[in-house]
Amino acid sequence: MLRCAVASSQRAAAAAASSSSSAGAAMSVQRLASAAASCSSSSAASLRGVRALSSVAQVPNYDVSPPTLPPFMRRSRLSPAAVALATHGGEPTRRERRTAQKAQRKAEVKRKAESSIFAKAGVAAQKYAPYVRRDRQFKTFKPITRSLRWTRYVLTPHLHRGKPERALTIAKRGTGGRNSTGRVTVRGRGGGHRRRLRLIDFYRRESGEQEVLRIEYDPGRSAHIALIQHKVSGLKSYILAPEGLRAGDTVESYRSGENTPAGDGEASSLDIGIFRTRAIRPGNVLPLSLIPIGTKIHAATLVPNGPAKLIRSAGAEGQLIAFVKRAKAALPGSVGFIEPSESDEELSELDVSSGAVVPTHAQVKLTSGEVRLLPMSCAAAIGRVSNIDHEHVRLGKAGRARWLGIKPKVRGVAMNACDHPHGGGRGKSKSNMHPRSIYGHKTKGPRTRKPGTKGGNMMVVRERPRMNGKRAGKA
């Protein structure tokens, strides 16, 4: 409209200059001047209307300031064109509309992130997807796809989200389940995401206090691991993280014998009790001779000065149930073997603390229910292994199993007769035979382990419970 007024005035001046000598020309100049005045007055009125609609006193310049929404229109349902018209007083361009919409979306996402439960709790930032459901224990998803319907993960807000300590990792070179000749020896393995093996310290020989820097996820095992640093030497190492261990805690290893009461009968029971009160903490490593009966343990060694071999998976725990004195080559039930009872446990605890009887072995009950003998000089860590809800994880789809390096396994009845003992025939029957593996071995009942010492493993007091050749479960 301003352009119309300026053009009208210019045409009026030109007409006046060309026809200044005639009366008709003077009349036309007056008409053009009145038209220009009316055009300029209407444009000024329209600008006053725009200023009345806007929340600012002046119309902003597009080239100086980016288009922003007024406070009273940030949550309005007006179209972008109407908002831009009310704000700037003109038809906005497509770029201006998109810029305003993008700024509004960013502000909304920031507002939701700041008001989330994770921001209020001060935990690590996560993806704020609208289909993620979290409770106190697991993370599930809104079933917008078939794979998300049954997917269930464990909530781990305390885990480190960054990369591992590079010096404590090595590259993993997968074999795909094949041996040196290229033949498949383990079926169902291959592929998977690239990994680096974390070097776990299963010896824990260095004494002194060590600070827990962080708790990390280990793709090579089901349990979580903890990165610790020695307070004096500054050396870092990875250990299995027990349940309840968090960043900032301290752990200590008493395996070398330093800062421990004498175990040969010279120390009093009071000294041993005070030491146990200070040392029985999750993550500390002690010899079995200094651990009280009934304590929950993990990462136990099979031989003195050896690495931890038992009770290392997620949620596993063992229990120290008795101390016994056993002859060197005695079998269970023979003369040199002492079978403990309920009354013997109390007596053995008193005898061990007083030094009257020096036991040779400790009875440890494993997670499977097996009771096993371990030498008293073996070591174990206090507590239960972390990530106890790992058994409740559901992958949701076969693709996540492939990410973990697990390939699909074909059923025997779906194969040909030349490929599997269950293959061939008509229908889906394996025929009238006992179930067998792909190599022809019976899969139910018979033991496949090679026979060893007569009478079985002498260190096993009670085998794990079985039922029809299968494990009956935890005892």
Task: Kindly describe this structure.
- This protein is an alpha+beta fold.
- The chain has 4 domains: 1-49; 54-115, no CATH class; 116-157, no CATH class; 166-382, Nucleic acid-binding proteins (OB fold (Dihydrolipoamide Acetyltransferase, E2P), Beta Barrel).
- Helices cover 25% and strands 16% of the residues.
- The chain has helices spanning 2-18, 23-53, 80-88, 94-114, 117-121, 146-149, 269-279, 342-354, 398-403; strands at residues 132-134, 138-141, 153-154, 169-171, 196-198, 209-216, 225-230, 236-240, 250-252, 285-287, 296-298, 300-301, 308-310, 318-324, 361-365, 371-375, 379-382, 460-462, 466-467, 470-471.
- The protein has a 7-stranded antiparallel sheet.
- A hairpin with a 3-residue loop joins strand 1 (132-134) and strand 2 (138-141).
- Helix 1 (2-18) runs antiparallel to helix 2 (23-53).
- The longest helix is centred in the N-terminal third of the chain and has 31 residues, at 23-53.
- The radius of gyration is 40 Å and the shape is flat.
- The termini are far apart.
- Residues 280-442 form the Large ribosomal subunit protein uL2 C-terminal domain.
Key traits:
about 475 residues; 4-stranded antiparallel beta sheet; 9 helices; alpha+beta; 4 domains
- Mean pLDDT rating: 79
So, CATH architecture of the largest domain? Answer: Beta Barrel
Looking at the structure, what is the overall shape?
flat
Record field, number of beta strands: 20
How far the N terminus sits from the C terminus, by CA atoms, comes to: 90 Å
What is the CATH topology descriptor of the largest domain? OB fold (Dihydrolipoamide Acetyltransferase, E2P)
Largest sheet: 7 strands, antiparallel
Beta fraction of the residues?
A: 15-25%
Superfamily (CATH H level) name of the largest domain: Nucleic acid-binding proteins
Give the class from helix and strand content and strand pairing.
alpha+beta
> Any idea of the CATH class of the largest domain?
Mainly Beta
Strand adjacency order, main sheet: 10-17-11-14-15-16-18
The DSSP helix count reads 9
Low-confidence stretches: 15-26, 49-60, 329-347
